[in-house]
Structures are given as C-alpha cells and as structure tokens.
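Extended Data, panel c. Modelled sequence:
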Amino acid sequence: MNHIELVCTGELKFPGLRELEKKYLQNINYYVKFTIKKMRDVRHREASYVRGKEGALFLREIQPRDFVVVLDARGRKMDSPRFAEFLGKKMSAVPGRLVFLIGGFAGVDPAVATRADMALSFSDLTVAHDIFRIVFLEQVYRAMTILHGGSYHR
C-alpha cells in the first residue's frame, strides 16, 4: 500500500487553514501519496438524517481492500511515535488504501462505524472540524518524519 486518503465533509472556511492544508499536503506527499476527498456538506436540522446521508457518501468512497480508520473521540488513543509506527505497519501490510474518515457535526453513521477497521482518537477535547483536519495532517506529516528519521519531530 502506498496511498493514504482522508475522506471528510466540506471545504475549509478560512484562507489561513487552506494554506496550512496545502503546505502539509505538499510535505506529506514527499513521503507517500496522500489525497483528500472532500464530500459535500449535508444540511438538515435532524442529526440522524445527516449521519445517514453522510454515511452513504462515505461508504461509496470505501473499497473492499481498504483499511478504514474512523477518527472519533471514543477511539483508541496513541502518541505521535506510536501513530508513526501504526502508519508504517499499515502502509506495508494493507493491500488497498489506508483511509481515514472525519465525520460531520452529527457524528459517524453506525454503518460506517461497522465497516471501519478501527476508531482512532486524537483527544478527548471537542475540536472544530476545520482545525482538526489541520491537526490530523500535521500529525501525519510528523509520523512520516519519524518513520524517515527526519528532524521535524524533535
């Protein structure tokens, strides 16, 4: 496997965050093919409706050989070196893509959670989706530098 994909909802709202996203994507792609699939936002007052619609969109993006990680506050926690180790192992062992999912405001649909191979948490804190996307990209970049002996992590 040599492809990591982030599937998430919506566009980043602030120009500064878009610049950071671009910077981290360039840095990550130096080490591994990394893409972001941005799903359209589902707008509705009922959270269960939004979860279901977003879930269907997410499931259409997942291929049978993919290893799917839902980014969720209730997931497993790991520090940066352990996250790097996890990425290294999955990149060498997974026959398909390594796919990370960030659900929308309503959370992740149960069908998506069932399909996922694991749930991963970066914090117990609630973080805005735009900011979390940048934090996630920064941690992927940090993991790549750890795996390749770079100085960024230190």
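The chain has a mean pLDDT of 93. This feature is highlighted in the accompanying rendering.
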